[in-house]
Specification:
This protein is α+β, with helices and mostly antiparallel strands and 112 residues long. It folds into two domains: 54 residues, no CATH class; 48 residues. It is 36% helix and 32% strand. The strands form two sheets. It has a three-stranded antiparallel β-sheet with strand order 1-2-3, with no helix packed on it. Strands 4-5 form a two-stranded antiparallel sheet. A hairpin with a 4-residue loop joins strand 2 and strand 3. The longest helix is centred in the C-terminal third of the chain and has 23 residues. The N and C termini lie far apart (57 Å).
Amino acid sequence: MSKQTFTSEIKVNVTLDENRIPESLSWTAIDGGVENAGAKAVLLSLWDSQQKETLRIDLWTKDMPVDEMKIFFHQTLVAMADTYQRATQDDKMADSMRDFSDFFAEKLNLKG
């Protein structure tokens, strides 16, 4: 019996100005029900297992407000802690990452 495989595509479109600075971002993930959704920032990390290194694409539009960037980073840190815990079952380190996320939010006055 042969194993059936599927392919899913996620696309990120970047519109650049004359200086090649992102003016707008949009993304599409048809399988997730998303088509040309707007975004102000994207952080994408890919693992190269041969080189044992992370490849990154970090983009944000020139009109991304700094206060929103701070919130975006905080939420990304919290999500990374959750993902780390699911991937490694290392509760202690995930909790440490969450502690840092709380510290980060406190220092930036993100929590009321």
